[in-house]
């Protein structure tokens, strides 16, 4: 048995020393690699192989041109010069019936994930806005009510009305932050030895944070799409004459605090779009401890570092999310709704090792909690 084990070790070392050499005794079988050795049963490592998505580049370009032309014809204004940065077609915008312009072939195998995300955001927003534009607009009270007001809470899939939101036009909007994680191997992304790729797609002022395992610091992956943002200011200043500052010191454009969102159909013409901010992060094994997604009810009441420090002290991601929401509700002064989602990554077990652990904001959090619960502070 020792000689057999020694022979396997020598073979493994030879393969490592000669990465270009042929993998002896290995064959690709279905969803994994099969390693054959003399006198022993083969060992198969099961796992799903990557799925190659077939795509027609010309068809993709036609769909993208048709979507941009639909926005231009429906809304106009900002969308007359709108050019999504991740769309693959080249040339100026053509009408939906013109197929003469050529598409680029930067990715001959199909669309990139960034291209698909941008198209999905813009197409979903267009479908919603065009459907709302076809509804009546004679009930100003109903127009400001939430779309799910008629839902039965104990069974959200059932509704009192056949059309969710009623027959009248809904003029509100919503933000969105999406995190997509993929791995090059069958092992899950939260395994300490697994590298992974993270793609973030974001509109509005919800927030996504990464916690570094080595430093313990919070790494923001999104920016708030507010008029005060230099990027958003430059993008919209040619369409919006002025930005107004409200009584709380927050800049608004056409009465809105967010410059990118789904819906908000009355402000589409001046540039309030669902064009997503995209970011890709290549994560090494156990490089990050966890991922935190939250609404502005959390990020407006707490700093990024306070959020990750509270999660570090929790035993599970679920407990960490509950603790973050509880603290934000307790110390927040605005009374905004608070939602948090924590996703475990490869460095979860080492989340307290980097930097100051959770002690960097400990004293400040204790002081803020005491201030919020002190009845004498409420009388001021």
From TrEMBL:
* Positions of region (Disordered): 1-40, 89-108
Q: Which residues form the signal peptide?
A: none
Concerning SMART domains, the annotation shows: PP2Cc
Q: Where is the composition biased (Basic and acidic residues)?
A: 1-27
Q: Which PROSITE patterns match?
A: PPM_2
Superkingdom of this protein's organism: Eukaryota
List the Pfam families: PP2C (PF00481)
Polar residues bias locations: 91-108
A single GO molecular function, which one? protein serine/threonine phosphatase activity
Annotated transmembrane regions: none
Sequence ranges assigned to domain PPM-type phosphatase in this UniProt record: 67-345
Recorded protein name is: PPM-type phosphatase domain-containing protein
Organism name: [Emmonsia] crescens
